[in-house]
Amino acid sequence: MPSRASLPPQYPLPVTSIRTKLVVVGRPITGALLSLTAALVAAKVFSHSQFRVLVPLGFVAVLIALASRFGSIVSVVGAVLAAMVFAYFLFPPLYSLRVDDPAARENLSWMVLSAIALSYLLFPSRKKSLH
Question: What's the CA gap between 84 and 81, in Å, rounded?
């Protein structure tokens, strides 16, 4: 196996430490779990509010904040998880993924689309090409 000094600087050594691998895998999972938890809290807090239809649009700020810390893929996964949580716990009929209110359906769609678009526009991928 070549030593670090013999490799050209543009080719980093592969990740070999188990701890480093756990950090690489654990960060997105942590971000997705934070998104899921925040969506559950928001659904509980706003479940009886007259503004609950607007909750998905405000939740975009949470998803963008998570994207800034954990990466764009967390925002994508978090948006899908949050949409499912809001459909299930926030909008009638409760405990079903079906949403009867057209405005709530539209806001869920806008939340997912805007979270994906904004996270990739504001926080592009940090991976560098080897070519």
Answer: 5
